[in-house]
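Chapter summary example: a protein plus adenosine monophosphate.
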Amino acid sequence: MSTFKDLGLNEDLLHAISDLGFIKPSEVQEKAIPILLESETDLVALAQTGTGKTAAFGFPMLEKIDVDSRTTQGLILSPTRELCLQITNEMKQYGKYCKGLNVVAIYGGSSITDQAREVKKGAQIIVATPGRMKDMISRRLVDISKIQYSVLDEADEMLNMGFKEDITDILSHTPDDKNTWLFSATMPKEVATIARKFMVDPQEITVGNKNESTSNVSHEYYLVNARDRYQALKRLSDANPDIFSVIFCRTKRDTQKVAEQLIEDGYSAGALHGDLSQNQRDMVMKSFRNQQIQMLVATDVAARGIDVDDITHVINYQLPDEAETYTHRSGRTGRAGKTGISMVIVSKSEVRKIKSIERIIKKEFVKKDIPDGADICEVQLMSLANKVNTTEVNHEIDGYLEKINSLFEETTKEELIKKFFSVEFTRFFNYYKKSKDLNVQASQNSRDDVQYSENSTRYFINVGSRDGFDWMKLKDFLKEILELGRDDVFKVDVKESFSFFNTDKSITPKILEFFTDYKYEGRFVNVEVSEDRGGRNRNRGRGRKDDGGKRRSSRGGGEKRFSSNKSGGNSSNRRERRNSEFSGGNRSDSRRSEGRSEGRKPRRSDSSSGEFGSSRPRRSRR
Ligand code: AMP
C-alpha cells in the first residue's frame, strides 16, 4: 500500500492532505493519481461516490494547472448543484496551500452576474452544472477555449438527467487536445458512447466491478404486504435508534407523504424532491448534513449528488424502475471506508426485481424479518441503557441530589433501575404490545385473503363504470381525494353503477368521515362498509346487485345524491348505522383505539424530547 507521497504529489498538496487527516490513498486514488500525474491522457474511471474520486481527479488537476496564470485551465462538470458545491469546497481545501488558486462554482438558482464576476477575477478551475455552464458560454461570460483538463463527474447521472446535449455543446467550446477524465459509478451504453465520442484511447480503471455496489454495503430485503410498507418503515427505524438514513420513494407525492407521516408520527424526518424550491431544498439538506434530520425521504432525482458521509442506512421504500438506479441509491451509504446497510421493503409481486438487482450489483441480498415489538423494545431499552451509561454527569444536578435521595431512601438499586427504565420502556412496550407480525412468508399466497379480511375493510361505493371509472381510475381518484399512498387502496372492483374497494382497517374512520359529505360532479357519494370480503362472490355481501344505477334523491332541498344502497336514508342515519356496524357504536372510541395501534410513535407528551419523544433529541455528529 502506497502513501500519498509515493503517488508523487507535491508538498503543498501533501500539507493539505495531512490537515484533512487522510492517512492513506483510497483505491481509486491509488490507481488514478499516478496515471494522471505521469501522462497526458484521457481516463475512464468506474468508481462510486464515496470512494474518494474527487481527490482522485482533484489532486492531479491541482498539481498540473498553473496558478500564476489567470486563464481557466480546468473544467469539472457535475450533475447537481449540491455536488458542484461539494466538489468546489473539496478542491479549495485540497488546494489551500496553492497560492493564487481560484476555484469557482457555476450552477443554476444563484446570481449569474455574481458568478461571472468571480470567473472574471481569474478562475483556473471552474466546477459547473451543465445547464448554467451552457448559459454562461452562450452569454460569453466564461471562456473555456484554453482548458487543458476536463472532468465529467458522475457521467451516468448527468446523462440520466438529460444533459447529453448540453455536455456535447459545452465540450465543443473546448480545445481538441485537452485531456478528459470521466468518472462514473456505472457504465451504461450511453456513457460508453460519450467516452468513445470525446476521448482518445482512454486508460481505464475500475474500482470494484462495473456497476457493482461498494463492498462495504450489505443488502437486505423485507417482504411485507404492500399496505404495510409504512408500518415496516417505522419498525426498521425504531429497531435502529441511531439511524441516519436516506429513504427513497418513486414519486414526489409519495416522498412528501411519507415524510409528512413520519414527522406526524414523531420522527425526525424531512422531504427532498423537485417540487420544493431551491431554498427549501437547501434548508433540508443543511439540516440533514448537520444530522438534525435523521431520515431524509427523497426521490432519485433530488437525491443525486447527496454527498453526506456517515449515512448508516439507505431504505428503499419502493424499488426504482431501473435496477441500475439501485446502485446509486445504495452508494449513498458505506462511504469513506465506513460500512452501511441498504434495505429494501418489497411486496410479493416485487421479489423478482431483487433477483435482477442481485445480477447487476453482483451481490446477494439477505432476506430479513421485520422486527417484532419485543425485538424493538429490547433494542430501544438497551440503546437507552448504553446512553445512560456513557452520559457525562452534569454537576448542575448536585444541588438537587439531597431532595432526590430522600425520595428514594427506601428504594434498592435494582428497584431504582427498574423504575428509571420503566419510564421509557412502558410507553414503547404499550405501543408495540399488540403489534402484528408484518412479515409475509415467501410461500404465502400474495392475495392473502385471510390477511385481507382480518386487517382490511371492504367498502361499497356508489360510483361505477357509467360514471367513467375503471379500476385504475377509481383507485387514483380515491387516492387523490383521500390523500392516500399508492398502496393504500386495493382490490378495486368496478361494476356498472357501483364498486368495491379495500383499505387498511386503521383508516376506515377517516374514509367514512370523508364521505359523509363528499360531492362528485355535484352529487353526494355514498360509501359504506361492505360485508363482501372481495372474494369470488363479490356482489353477495348485502344482497346488492348492480341495478344499472337507479339513483334516488334522498336529501331534502333538491340535492342530487348517489344512493344505490337499499337502506339509503339521510346522512345522520347512515352515520349511526356505520357506527354500529364496525366500531361497536362509538365512533370516537374507534378512532382512539386506532391511534393506539401502530399510529404515532409513543410520546411522553408533545413537548417531550425524550428518547422516544415527539422530536428525537438532536444528534451531534458521530
Ligand atoms: P468522494 O468520493 O470524493 O465524494 O469522497 C468521499 C469522502 O471521502 C469525502 O468526504 C472525502 O473528503 C473523503 N476522502 C477522500 N479521500 C480520502 C482518503 N484518502 N482518506 C480518507 N478520506 C478520504
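Key point: The chain has four domains: 11-206, 217-373, 383-432, 449-584.
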